[in-house]
Amino acid sequence: MRVALLFLSGRVILQKDLGWSVERNSQKIIARLKREGFEVVSIKGSHHKLRRGSQTIIVPHPKKDLPIGTALAIAKQAGWNASDKS
After folding, report:
1. Residue 3's pLDDT is what?
2. pLDDT value at position 42?
3. CATH superfamily of 23-81
4. What pLDDT score does 33 carry?
5. Known Pfam families for this protein (predicted)?
6. d(Cα 61, Cα 11) in Å, to the nearest integer?
7. Chain segment 37-65, per-residue pLDDT in tens
8. Whole-structure pTM value
9. Residue 33: which of 79, 73, 68 has the closest Cα?
10. Spatial distance between the Cα atoms of 40 and 5, rounded to a whole number of angstroms
11. Domain residue ranges of the chain, discontinuous segments joined by +
C-alpha cells in the first residue's frame, strides 16, 4: 500500500491511500511465498524463516495485520510489486 502520512508529535494524524495495496496478513504472505517456491526452513518464536535458493525472508507469524512497513519490506524482498497482489 502506498500511503502518504502526516505526522504530529511522532503520531500519525493523517493517512491517505495512494492507489495500491500490499497483503498484510502473515498467513496469506507465507502461503504466497510457498507457492512461489520458498520453503519454511525454521521457526523461532513467532518468526518463520523461508528460503528459496540463497534468498531468505523472515515473516512474523501469526499476525493478522503486519505493520505496513514490515509488509512492504517483505514484498520488496520477494520482488512483488503493486500489480502482482495475489
Report:
1. 56
2. 97
3. Hypothetical protein. (3.30.920.30)
4. 97
5. HicA_toxin
6. 26
7. 999 999 999 999 999 999 999 999 887 88
8. 0.73
9. 79
10. 34
11. 23-81
C-alpha distances out from residue 2 to 15, 29, 69, Å: 10, 18, 10
Cell of 18: 495512494
* Residue 1's pLDDT band (cuts 50, 70, 90): very low
Cell of 81: 510489486
User: Closest by alpha carbon to 26, among 68, 57, 64?
Assistant: 64
Number of helices (H), then strands (E), in the chain: 2, 5
46/28 Cα distance (integer angstroms): 15
State how far the Cα of 33 lies from the Cα of 3, in Å rounded to an integer: 24
